[in-house]
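Below is how a single chain appears once it has passed through the pipeline. First comes the sequence as given, then the structure the pipeline wrote out for it. We keep one example in the README because the format questions we get most often are answered faster by looking than by reading.
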Amino acid sequence: MSFSAAAQKDNTSIIIQSEGMKITVDKIAQGFSVPWAIAVLSADKLLVTEREGSIYIYHLDKSETIKLKNTPDVMAQGQGGMLDVVLSPDYKNSGWIYFTYVKDVEGEGATVLARARLETDKFKDWQELLITQSTTDADYHFGSRITFDEDGHVYFGIGDRGERPDAQNLMNHAGTVIRLNLDGSIPDDNPFNNTKSQKQALLPEIWSYGHRNPQGIAYDFNNKRLWSIEHGPRGGDEINLILPAHNYGWPVISYGKEYWGPVAVGEGTHREGMTQPVKVYIPSIAPGSLIHYSGNLLPGWKGNLFAGALALRHINRLVLDKNGKIIKEERLLEELKERIRAITQSPEGWIYFSTDSGDIYQIKPLGSNKTKLENRQ
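Resulting structure:
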């Protein structure tokens, strides 16, 4: 099934200036229901997930949207549902597309990493690579974004699932960043592979732990750095440089406060053996995504981190020095007053982002061709 609509009047462009560049921000689609993730299939096709479970191809050149068939059943409750979508690094050869979503496991939700191939308007060869040991009856803190490194590994994050102590328990996947080979097998050099505690094996998929709810993850190929951004409680959102076996502290340490009062979470902000964040946001911006921009079309932004902000409604741009220290922050597109959910980069160097109100935008250098606006409904 497809939907199409005529382009609307030209009132959807915003011109911004940053780092000496003039940049245009165009609304290219609207009418989605919480578009949680975007993957760029080609120069004229986007893959879009909706949290309630649907997946679409959006044809930029034809202003047409196609709802895809043979999608998995998801538990779409609270913050759960169909979550991230990312193309495999070898997508041109293998055709694999990776997904995270929430699955019903005996009435409780678990974050799942899966992959499938796309054939015209339907998926085939679905493989659930990991049904995580993260089930609780809570309907929040599922994570979960996906990224890859240059050595054939896939990473994704999982929240604490509403059970704070689980983020310190290496016998479940809650509150962790997971690392697998592309086929779902466990890398031999994962830090907890073949490690035992209290006569029980620690879960070997775990790369790092002590996370509250990581909702952005990105890999810097030039410097071989893995970055994550996660929700704090009331204040205390964090950007972390993710290192193997490191404990990022939740809920023992945090820069946030309890929701019920101005009381510190846990012991405070520091504890020996627990890794400090690279940046803390107080008040919270409520991050929804993260990319490390590597394109050439927006040269002033190359090497920067970009995060979508839900609560404070902007795109958060961070400039890094050569050592990975954040030296500058810029808050873009606050005038939209939109909850920014997904953000991604195309091979050409365009940036796309979605809003919880159902819109998709495209960021390009000023003077690039504008894409038609399409309404899916």
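The longest strand covers residues 108-119.

See the next section for the split statistics.
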